[in-house]
Amino acid sequence: MNLIRMSIRRSIWMVSRGTRDVAELAQMGDAPHVPVLLRPIIAKTAPISGTWLDGTFGAGGYTRALLDAGADTVIAVDQDPLVFDMAKSWADEYGARLVPVASNFADLDKAGQNLDGIVLDLGVSSMQIDQAERGFSFMQDGPLDMRMSQSGPTAADLVNTATEAELADILFQYGEERASRRIAKAIIAARPLNTTAELVAAITEVAPVKKGQSHPATRSFQALRIAVNDELGALIRGLEAAERALAPNGWLAVVTFHSLEDRIVKRFLQSRSAISQGSRYAPEQKSAAPTFELQGRKAIKADDEEVAANPRARSASLRLAKRTTAAARPSDWGKLGLPGLVFR
Ligand SMILES: C[S@@+](CC[C@H](N)C(=O)[O-])C[C@H]1O[C@@H](n2cnc3c(N)ncnc32)[C@H](O)[C@@H]1O
Question: What is the pLDDT of residue 32?
Fold first, then answer.
């Protein structure tokens, strides 16, 4: 399926339903999104200094903590242009030390070079989920959008144009949804789908809500969000860009929220911290020196105190690595655990 060929439906939701605007979001408090695993990142990378890049700025929790911990400058990258408006109420406090860049972190090496540290805190923020008009939440009715960058094809474009086999594949591979075929069939039968409520209704028709179990739409919403934003492709490109952008001894900290993401980060860092024997992209390369020094074999998890204060932290995993002096090189995507979808 060619996502580029899909028509882009203009949402009339914001006009017809009204939307929570930026000013209103800024009023939601100093930290509408509670940062996860921030304490271990700051502690393990201390002393913090020089230029850091936060590839997932969000509500700015990581950026502020890095600046307060001693970073001279933080280049704050986010693909959602709205997040920088939300930071206006406090950004002045840091003056020129905070450099906002609206971009995908897949291109982070264009935003900064010779960096002392890079942090990536993957996924969507609480603010994005809370804004019904963004279409990320199955708990609130809104347009079927799900685009973090607010550009490109929407989730509605995807569900209304994909074949049944393509949809089933997305739901199974990106959502690990066991009822993927049944749900894909129900989506096709209910098309066109333009709102989150319509999608939830199609899903619950064949996968009813069961007491004590997670909502049947949880996995499908995750899968469609990953597909719409090409989250796993961006992650691999972001890791490769981080390798090109970090100075020797520079830190890379990545926080993931599900096994698909964590597997990619784990395999990338494992492959970069061992002596490489070349790859199918560079067979002539006999061996390449490690580009990262892995900090611990296991991912760091949130402690009981953090999980009690912020249940979102339960599924988070932090992997940390330090850049060596070896030259950056292309990676073999086939070995990084990226699900193979039929529509690719
Ligand atoms: C979990 S939130 C980050 C929260 C942030 N660490 C904080 O403390 O407020 C993830 C953010 O990353 C952004 N994001 C996700 N994928 C991205 C990508 N590929 N490039 C740039 N930004 C991305 C989202 O738009 C969202 O604002």
Answer: 72
Q: What is the pTM of this model?
A: 0.89
Judge whether 194 and 9 are in contact, CB under 8 Å: yes
Q: Output the pLDDT for position 23.
A: 37
CA of 78 to the centre of ligand 1 (A): 6
For residue 248, the tally of other CB atoms under 10 A from its CB is: 10
Distance 77 CA to ligand 1 centre (A): 8
- Which of 56, 57, 151, 310 for a ligand 1 pocket mutation test, highest count of atoms within 8 Å of Cβ? 56
Predicted local distance difference test score (pLDDT) of residue 281:
59
Q: Where in the chain is the domain with CATH 3.40.50.150?
A: 26-126+231-335
pLDDT at 74: 98
* Protein residue with its CA nearest to atom 12 in ligand 1: 56
Q: How far is the CA of 3 from the centre of ligand 1 (A)?
A: 23
Class of domain 26-126+231-335: alpha beta
User: Is there an atom of ligand 1 within 6 Å of 121 CB?
Assistant: yes
> What is the pLDDT at residue 340?
77
For residue 36, CA distances in Å to 66, 120, 262, 301, 311 come to 14, 11, 15, 10, 10
Q: Rounded to 10 degrees, what is the CA torsion of 240, 176, 187, 122?
A: -40
The response to whether residue 137 sits with its C-beta less than 6 Å from ligand 1 reads no
Fold for domain 3-22+137-228? DNA polymerase; domain 1 (1.10.150)
Mean pLDDT by 10 residues, the chain (344 residues): 34 31 39 87 97 97 98 98 93 96 98 98 94 96 97 98 97 95 98 98 93 93 97 97 98 96 96 72 68 94 95 95 96 88 55
**Number of neighbours of residue 341 by Cβ within 10 angstroms:** 15
